[in-house]
Amino acid sequence: MFLENTVNPKEQFGWIEVICGSMFSGKTEELIRRLKRAKFAKQKVEIFKPMVDKRYHEEMVVSHDANEIRSTPVPAAANIRLLADDCDVVGIDEAQFFDDEIVTVCNDLANKGIRVVVAGLDMDFKGNPFGPMPALMATAEYVTKVHAVCTRTGNLANYSFRKANNNKLVFLGETEEYEPLSRAAYYKAMLKEKVNAIEVTSEEVLPPQKKSND
Fold first, then answer.
1. Which residues make up the binding site for ATP (predicted)?
2. What is the DSSP letter of 39?
């Protein structure tokens, strides 16, 4: 459960909050909720996202439920440091797509008294820790892991299974390309892919059949 920090005016340090999970788990929705509450409180809020993410809008951070908030697309983490110096709250979406400097940037901002709220995928489509997210989760004061619902079992899902035939690490997509799976469903799906790959390879290496003289 996430508990928002009680502000102590004597302590001039901020903090880092990380919202992580699989695709379709509500990460961006939760990020937008926290940032809108800060705006209602008349705090100066700036939101950033990687320039590569243009699925819904070039400038808006948009959740799968079409909830949105205006943001600034940036090509690299270093740009955030330059643009967020006088903010009360900084929001960062799709943090897994940023370079490793995002970890230093977030800590530098927090050390200046800024509240930093970060959302991102904790694992890639292969089930491995994704980019700078593990380091962000380790240095954050608060980590919230949200879950989707598995499309095959109905259980909680924490894996993003890629249905599209593409092995690039960064591959933007929606429900046509990805589906959230539970551990059991993900294991079965990955096992099926391996078996199919072995069968295809076996057929390719079979020698040509000799024609019968009969």
1. 21-28, 93-96
2. H
Nearest one of 80, 52, 56, 78 to 69, comparing CA atoms: 56
Is 93 among the annotated ligand-binding positions? yes
User: Is 23 labelled a binding residue?
Assistant: yes
* Residue 43, marked binder: no
91 marked ligand binding residue: no
Cα–Cα distance for residue pair 186/23, rounded to 1 Å: 13
pLDDT tens per residue, the chain (214 residues)? 566 666 666 667 899 999 999 999 999 999 999 999 999 999 999 999 998 866 544 444 554 454 567 888 999 999 999 899 789 999 999 999 999 999 999 999 999 999 999 999 999 999 999 999 999 999 999 999 999 999 999 999 999 999 877 677 766 656 678 899 999 999 999 999 889 878 666 555 555 666 555 5
The CATH code of the domain at 15-146 is 3.40.50.300
Please identify every residue annotated as catalytic. Answer: 94
Judging by DSSP bridges, how do beta strands 156-157 and 148-149 pair with one another? Answer: antiparallel
**Nearest alpha-carbon partner for 16 in 129, 111, 93, 86:** 111
Give, in degrees to the nearest 5, the angle at Cα 45 between 41 and 47: 140
| CA 130, chain centre distance (Å) | 8
